[in-house]
Amino acid sequence: MELENYFEFLSDEDIRIKGTRIGIETILDDYLDGISPEEIAVRYRSLTLEQVYATITYYFQNRKKVDAYLTAWRQYTDQASQMQDHNPSEVIKRLRRLKATMAHNNNF
Fold this sequence. Notes:
The protein is mainly α. It has one domain (3-106): Winged helix-like DNA-binding domain superfamily/Winged helix DNA-binding domain (Arc Repressor Mutant, subunit A). The protein contains five helices and two strands; from the N terminus they run E-E-H-H-H-H-H. It has a two-stranded antiparallel sheet. Strand 1 (7-11) and strand 2 form a beta hairpin. Helix 1 crosses helix 3 and helix 3 crosses helix 4 (63-86).
């Protein structure tokens, strides 16, 4: 089986493990943080160990391309997080007010 058959290339910014909603960035971030393939397979029960190894192998065979993918993904998530911090939803605003009220009440 070709290595690419393990993945769904939804776009240049979205590569997922076939049959799952898990992106390769999830597996590779864990792996690059020092988590073993076996631990990753246990952590994400919808993945097989074979899929984890296929993702890691794909990374090493396409390192420059996948490093660019990971960099773009990290930039996107950082920007999304910043936007969410600057423009929180009404629910987040209410939770923040509740937290501030509780903290204020606990100080008395």
